[in-house]
Amino acid sequence: MDEVFAYIDRNFGRFVEELAAVCRIPSVSAQKKGLDDCARHLVGAMKEIGLDARAMPMGGADNPPLVYGRLDAPGARRTLFIYGHFDVQPPEPLDAWDTPPFEPTLKDGRMYGRGTGDNKGQFLAHLKAVEALQRSGRGVPVNLRILLDPQEEIGSPMLEAFVTSHADLFRADFGYNADGNAAEGNVPLLSFGNRGSCYVEVRVRTARRDVHSGQFGGPMPNAAWRLVEFLQTLRDASGRPAIEGFFENVLPPTEADRRALAAIPFNKEAWKKEVGVAEEAGPPGMGYFEKIMFQPTLSICGLTSGYGGPGTKTVIPSQASAKIDMRLVKNQTPPEIFEKFRAHARRRGFGDLEAVQLLTYHPSKTPLDHPMSEAVIAAVREVFGKEPLLYPVTGGSNPSYIFNEILGIPMVKVPYGNYDEANHAPNENLDLDFFRRGIKTSAKVICDLAAL
Amino acid sequence: MKDIYEAIDRGKEKFIAELKDLLRLPSVSYTGEGIPRCAEHLCRWLQGWGVSARVVPTQGHPVVLGKVEPPGAKRRVIVYGHYDVKQVGDLAEWKSPPYEPAERDGAIYARGAADDKGQLLANAIAVRLLKEMGRLPAAVTFVFEGEEEVGCKSFQAFAEAHREELRADLYYASDGPRHISGRPTVRLGNRGNLCMRLVVRNEIGADVHSGNLGELVRNPAWDLVHLLHTMKDPEGEALIPGFYDEVAPPTELERRALADIPGDEAEICRKLGISRIYGPPRFTVNEKLFFRPTLTIEGFHCGMESTIIPGQAMCYLECRLVKDMTPEGTFEKIKRHVEAQQVPGAALTLTRSSQANKTPLDHPTVQPVLDAFRRMHAEGALDGPLLVMPISGGSNASTQVFTQYLGLPAITTNYAQPNNGQHGPNENIRIDHFMTGIKMGAAALTALKG
Known about the structure:
The complex is a heterodimer. By secondary structure, chain A is an alpha+beta fold. Chain A has two domains: 2-194 and 364-450, 3-Layer(aba) Sandwich (Aminopeptidase), CATH 3.40.630; 196-254 and 285-361, Alpha-Beta Plaits (2-Layer Sandwich). Chain A is built from 13 helices and 19 strands. Chain A has a six-stranded mixed beta sheet with strand order 1-2-6-3-7-18, covered by helices on one side. A four-stranded antiparallel beta sheet of chain A has the order 12-14-10-15, with helices on one face. In chain A, helix 1 packs across helix 3 (116-135), helix 3 packs across helix 13 and helix 11 (371-384) packs antiparallel against helix 13. The mean pLDDT of chain A is 94. Chain B has two domains: 2-190 and 356-449, 3-Layer(aba) Sandwich (Aminopeptidase), CATH 3.40.630; 192-247 and 293-354, Alpha-Beta Plaits (2-Layer Sandwich), CATH 3.30.70. Chain B is 33% helix and 22% strand. In chain B, strands 1-2-6-3-7-18-8-17 form an eight-stranded mixed beta sheet, sandwiched between helices. In chain B, strands 12-14-10-15 form a four-stranded antiparallel beta sheet. The model of chain B has no long low-confidence stretch (mean pLDDT 93). At the A-B interface, strand 11, helix 5, helix 6, helix 9 and strand 12 of A face strand 11, helix 6, helix 7, helix 10 and strand 12 of B.
């Protein structure tokens, strides 16, 4: 790899300029800004390094295109899928930034700007690795399928439909993704999956309209009470989900998972202080990481019924609703859990309640002992010079299930962001040393996976 | 009475114009919007036909106080109404602007049309007409309050400061809708009420991500659901220890009155658009409305924005109280119950309350008025047989001041039709009900000559 790494070092100044050029484009998906411009720019950047690239509409007049790039390497046995996203979070609040969010600024070895770390600097690392392999004479030894998502920050609403109807474009043996930031102390890590989510709104209607609580209070059913009765059935006395069959498909951690969990440092006192609680809640006899990675949850995210303004309003509400977030773990699926949720409601006498799925993510998890893991671990270990932590699952949900679970591509994620990347926050930044190591890691991963 | 009713019919256009003038003035007690101007307007209007009227300041919004002293009057009646209105809510739901009275389908639409400006004015117009005809048999003290919709906060203090001026033999008011059957309605009492705010906070007090922290931190929404669930049994009875201790069953006389009140469950379900009657089946609908206390949720709110664990959950709770239950005593019982559940960060506060009140069905001053209404029906001037309700489901803290503190028998009539949209959008009063209200006011006052 020496000639490849030397090419990267020689051209690194230009790579930084290219990153700045991408970060100058304010591609804010939540505000529907700059996404077409950014897609056009990236298609050009991909063609420049020999990829067959194009912007592809995902359907719906309001939706920006995704960027797709492919390379069919002569004689390659393996195909690698790479995921990244070129949309960014809104920059607000603007006055909290030390430098303008869309004028990338170099300071103390870092580049400051919205999108530098999340995710432009990280997917660009893959592209620059491809360039380095091509131009250093080493060559790209695998076929590449690259997808750059324009809507990751708003939940990738169009992605699943697009990918499943264009599955042939994405078939691959391995999937790789760089996103997020290293662990505390800038310890590199690998992430093998995410919890899923089944986010449901439950609506109760007990009458045509709200009525005066004095005139009708007594014989008049109250939607809020009925919702309370229903919600109470969802948990047992210890506060755990009480939906019949909720846990039946839950896979417990494997031995490899347990070893990985034991190696992740967790300072409980510091965590409690940071979050602002006196005690960690959740099922007893279970560690923090087991709870957050291997346990499904059922949380009320919101309640609304009747009057909520100032003062009082003496009405009996005819409607009430709750938003419920069920975080899912492998092998639960949103359709399975939603059906169990509805069956539970019917069984407990609440069949008249309306339940609507607002957002779903499948959980995803690649086994820690998958052959590609060893290759990626070795690459990270060598380039970063540290033993990486292995996160079997991370708490949040993201679209990687589309590739992992639906297309069946084993996915591994390595964050190329520094620990204090400040993603989603003002003064987002990317440590340029991480950028350089990210490019080298991608180059090595591409080469090593070819040999599997 | 025939000539009086005819005189009322002749004045229809003028009366409607006077009502519209009053409805054009916003008078929202919660925000204070337009209150002084509306009070001033009412005072001048009363003075305009010879009432000795003034705007009396209180600790909150003023009371418009007016006196009419016909020669030879032996008795005095308080004619009560309130000129304040509820907030208009979502303007988009109004078919015509709330402060631009509009006539549609025989009704006048505007905020306050039914609750209570239309009814207040009907009684005042009745007094004016009898006075002009030289037929007013009793002295009248008008008491028009400006804080009814916010719980009559200053009314007790006002009554204490003006006790002498409020001496009378009877309290007469018109507020609220007729019984759901549409029959002309008289109510001789009110349930009390008790409004509370229940807040549960966790230690963080701010929303956090439900993916990262779900079930790792206490969720106040679950705590609130749990707390509320401990308060009701599956049949809908309150589980607060001692909640029903002071509740007495209806007397024989009250039972007979109850029997006259329509209470067909299927009919009520159809009218309200509900699938079943709430609460234990051993009580009839009318017993539930008039002789049973309630514990209800007026509303609750928290979160609702995407995937978060809310830092706080808030709920408005309310009780309707029946005779002998005190707001303070009931509040203490509920507070003790909440505390006994040991939910950290839960706090219950009392926001407003009123005591229940009841005038006996056989009170000697009340009887002639009820008889006059029955006669009115017999003579064809009233569109249905009178319905006498021993107690009303609603609550009015000022009525309680007159009955408890000043010791007056109290009659509350309802001139507005059942579906008048009070407190909601498109509030309205049917013009025929407004006109019948003026006639009922005149009949009631005439009955006080004995």
